[in-house]
Amino acid sequence: MTEPRRVQLPAPDDFEGWRDAARGLVKAGVLPEAVVWQVPGGVLDLFGEDLPTPPAPSFAVPRAFVDMARSAICHSDPERFALLYAMLWKLRSNRHAMEDRADPLLDRLQRLAKEVRRDAHKMHAFVRFREVEGQGGSRFVAFFEPDHHIVRNEAGFFVRRFANMRWSILTPELSIHWDGKTLSEGPGATRADAPAGDPLEAVWKTYYANIFNPARLKVGAMLKEMPKKYWRNMPETSLVQPLIAGARSRELEMIDRSMAKQGLENALGAERRLEPGSNVRATWEALLTEARGCTRCDLYKCGTQTVFGEGALDAAILFVGEQPGDQEDLAGRPFVGPAGQLFDAALEKAGIDRSTTYVTNAVKHFKFVQRGKKRIHSKPDAGEIEACRWWQESERALIKPAVTVALGATAARSLTGKTLTISRAREAPVTLRDGSECWITVHPSFLLRIPEEERRREERALFVRDLERIKARAAELAT
Questions:
Q1: What is the pLDDT of residue 457?
Q2: Where do the domains of the chain lie?
């Protein structure tokens, strides 16, 4: 068995070194599976044969491959060199291999390149310099944690953008420094090596708070574009959570000042039709204020904030879900994530205007398990449901809906005190302790989890059917 050839590159982002070595290997007819690529800090192959990499004759490849390789080589995937060499080997016999959109190898490399470009975009957008005083005058220092080996490649962007500044960008892998004339490298650093703040941050925070527009807030899109891992290095992100939490009240203030957001103005129509002098609004606001400080169970330690109900305070239909999800927890509003979007679409099909209803949850805090960067939903237990029942009962007592709808088993248990099977309970209403009707149906998140397309369509049609029956019953009780 022939021992593999080992190519030792001097840096993890060394495109030129990889290119020269790859050209020589291809010319020598060395198959991709016979090469081991290594960089400093990688795992050594003790049995590989060192391969000298003298300059090799040019090997013509499409420009698209070169562009892709320059980006993909900076990825943190340890297989990137081997993948690129395998693609280069394909191009040796087929110059059109880059046009094969069905090739899984090409697809993987293009995804690596795309992730590197996205990481570079994040670096351009989220590096925040802080001014420090030292020998020779002031200097601007930033700390950044890239996902990939992009720092050397992106140094030129910062040189061009901040040519007249003296600055340093510290990262765990390496640091780059610009003195106004020369760019140099240094060893990696930690966040503790970067300054904590400077007087300019107060000005920047004031500016950011004033340009924040709650009416255009999309928490999911924001987190996708600006993941939380970057927040610690950006002064304005200390304002994000309170701005999100207060987005609803600020949004309502903006609506009151202007009729530009007609859709949300209509959503508040039912509340504003309450009789003059009614204290329902004041009572609801008092409940909301008290709920924000709720410590009835330990879930208040987990979630970002209490997610209280919202909607018309004279609603004929009151919906109760299980608990807020990740996006609801960040936004401070119920049913705004993927399940909420499905819920809104089903309401529209059933002819129900959500603005005329009231929507809340059986449990007001987000219960989750942290898995890496993701917060995974965890079902609330009986004690947590019982501890939070007081809030939904207070909401129902204030609003007095003709029909209460339990979305899922957790909501059904909170409302009835019993464990019910949804498929059996959804056909007829249940009488609650106060004598009102409760209709039980599935939670929209259940519909999102169904893998089979045909069954998913059937279940969504049943959900819309349930909502249509609930709408008709609420109208009947109102007459």
A1: 94
A2: 5-122, 127-198, 279-478
Within a 10 A sphere around the Cβ of 340, how many other Cβ atoms?
A: 22
Contact 151, 174 (CB under 8 A): yes
Angle between helices 104-126 and 151-161 (to 10 degrees): 40
Q: Alpha carbon of 5 to those of 23, 33, 256, 407: distances in Å?
A: 14, 9, 72, 61
Q: With contact defined as beta carbons under 8 Å apart, do 63 and 18 qualify? A: no
pTM, two decimals, is 0.46
Take residue 135 and report the two structure tokens written for it: 């020998």
User: How far is 358 from 362, CA to CA, in rounded Å?
Assistant: 13
User: Is the CB of residue 267 less than 8 Å from the CB of residue 293?
Assistant: no
Question: 94-123: per-residue pLDDT in tens?
Answer: 888 998 888 999 999 999 999 999 999 988
Q: Are 433 and 467 a contacting pair, CB within 8 Å?
A: no
Domain 279-478: give its CATH architecture. Answer: 3-Layer(aba) Sandwich (3.40)
* C-alpha 296 chain-centroid distance: 29
Nearest CA to 330 out of 241, 208, 248 is that of 241
**Cβ-based neighbours of 50, under 8 Å, separated by 6 or more:** 6, 8
Classified as helix, coil or strand, 420 is coil
Are residues 67 and 92 in contact, defined by beta-carbon separation less than 8 angstroms?
A: no
CA gap 327, 211 in Å, rounded: 22
Contact 219, 243 (CB under 8 A): no
In whole angstroms, what is the distance from residue 73 CA to residue 18 CA? 9
